[in-house]
Amino acid sequence: MSKKLIVTLFFVLMVATAALAFAQDHAEEAVEVKLLAAEYVPFFVAVVFAAAAAMGLGSFGTGIGMGNAVRGAVDGVSRNPDAFGRILTTMMIGLAMIESLAIYALIVALVLIFANPFLRLFGAILG
């Protein structure tokens, strides 16, 4: 075996055992956190369903809107091919606005999951 491979394997082994050693110091705290986390499970389940509903409804609505916008643009171009440039520009701006609604729904879902502003309120209700 080459010297680089031996040094790399030794380094990986050393880092892995160091992580285990550091984890032992916080075993009691982990049990307390696990017991505390059990109280928050229904809240987080509701948050995940709310985020899924936000993304689902947002994606469904924007998908329907984009389909109607493209259908209208194609219909307009088929009636007046000379206005293709103006119709395409207007359609692209409209599609960007519609897509921004889906992005807003994604941002709301991510905020609900990762930076939940209602967590403190729920913790106060639990006591």
Automatic annotation (TrEMBL):
Cellular-component GO terms for this entry: plasma membrane; proton-transporting ATP synthase complex; proton-transporting two-sector ATPase complex, proton-transporting domain
Pfam name, any one: ATP-synt_C
Major subcellular site: membrane
Site (Reversibly protonated during proton transport): E99
Membrane-traversing stretches: 43-66, 87-115
GO molecular function term, any single one: proton-transporting ATP synthase activity, rotational mechanism
InterPro entries associated with the record: ATP_synth_csu_bac/chlpt (IPR005953), ATP_synth_F0_csu (IPR000454), ATP_synth_F0_csu_DDCD_BS (IPR020537), ATPase_proteolipid_c-like_dom (IPR002379), F/V-ATP_Csub_sf (IPR035921)
Leader peptide range in chain numbering: 1-23
The keyword Lyase is annotated on this UniProt entry: no
Keywords: ATP synthesis, Cell membrane, CF(0), Hydrogen ion transport, Ion transport, Lipid-binding, Membrane, Signal, Transmembrane, Transmembrane helix, Transport
PROSITE patterns (alphabetical): ATPASE_C
Subcellular localization(s) per the UniProt record: Cell membrane; Membrane
Membrane topology of this protein: Multi-pass membrane protein
Residues covered by the V-ATPase proteolipid subunit C-like domain: 49-112
HAMAP family: ATP_synth_c_bact
Cited function: F(1)F(0) ATP synthase produces ATP from ADP in the presence of a proton or sodium gradient. F-type ATPases consist of two structural domains, F(1) containing the extramembraneous catalytic core and F(0) containing the membrane proton channel, linked together by a central stalk and a peripheral stalk. During catalysis, ATP synthesis in the catalytic domain of F(1) is coupled via a rotary mechanism of the central stalk subunits to proton translocation. Key component of the F(0) channel; it plays a direct role in translocation across the membrane. A homomeric c-ring of between 10-14 subunits forms the central stalk rotor element with the F(1) delta and epsilon subunits.
NCBIfam families in alphabetical order: ATP_synt_c
Family: Belongs to the ATPase C chain family.
Descriptive protein name: ATP synthase subunit c
UniProt source species: Candidatus Zymogenus saltonus
